[in-house]
Design brief:
By secondary structure, the chain is α/β, with parallel strands linked by helices. The protein contains seven helices and six strands. Helix 5 (about 165-170) links the parallel strand 4 (about 155-160) and strand 5. The chain is elongated.
């Protein structure tokens, strides 16, 4: 059972916290599962609105451009041909849906692998309680400075929506506030440092056991 330091908002170690083996302490990290889920998420983000005209859709081409023989040029039957300027595209892209799904068990396993990776790389900080009495970006920035993680890409994980926390963090570059209910593998790969509250850890262990 992995143990990590428990901090207060001043960056001081106040205790240690034991994390669940089945979420934060897997024996082996499965890169294939992580890759599968990230690939799915990237595909699902694609708009799929690209479009080009085929030879059946471009204008012109109703008449043979010049006679079959005697001109000394290659034979052509239409100016819509892909080899002509302003001709149609051979395999023109058309609007399509790129999205697909992978089993829920695979998505959950990928998240567990990411949590384990954060613990192994010492890229997780657990804070006893994250609370702001007012919306104050400066106070949020000072908190990260005390942890020595300023300049890094940080994911701040909390139990549920807290207006003071969310609005205090929204103008800090490289910081994303996320909630236990919508955390995903792609975000965890994009942000190298995970800072979470003790309550969020308890909720993760309850949801993903």
């Amino acid at each position: 059972m992995p143990k990590v330091n428990l901090y207060n908002m001043n960056g001081e170690v106040i205790d240690q916290i034991a994390l669940a083996d089945e979420i934060f302490g897997l024996e082996e990290i499965n890169d294939t599962v992580i890759h599968t889920v990230v690939k799915m998420q990237l595909a699902n983000k694609r708009q799929g609105t690209q479009s080009a005209l085929t030879r059946a859709e471009v204008s012109g081409g109703g008449k043979k451009p010049y006679r079959q023989k005697g001109s000394g040029r290659a034979r052509h039957g239409s100016t819509r041909s892909p080899i002509w300027t302003k001709g149609g595209v051979v395999f023109a892209p058309k609007p399509r849906d790129y999205s697909y799904t992978v089993p829920k068990k695979v998505r959950r396993l990928a998240l567990k692998n990411m949590f384990t990776a954060k613990v192994r790389e010492d890229n997780i900080r657990v804070i006893d309680e994250i609370a702001f009495e007012e919306i104050k970006t400066k106070k949020m920035a000072e908190m990260f400075k005390k942890f020595g993680v300023e300049g890094r890409k940080i994911m701040l994980l909390i139990n549920s929506y807290d207006e003071n926390i969310v609005k205090s963090a929204r103008n800090i570059d490289g910081l994303k506030v996320s909630f236990v209910g919508n955390i995903n593998v792609l975000d965890m790969t994009n942000y190298d440092m995970l800072i979470t509250s003790k309550g969020a850890v308890a909720q993760i262990e309850e949801v993903y056991r």
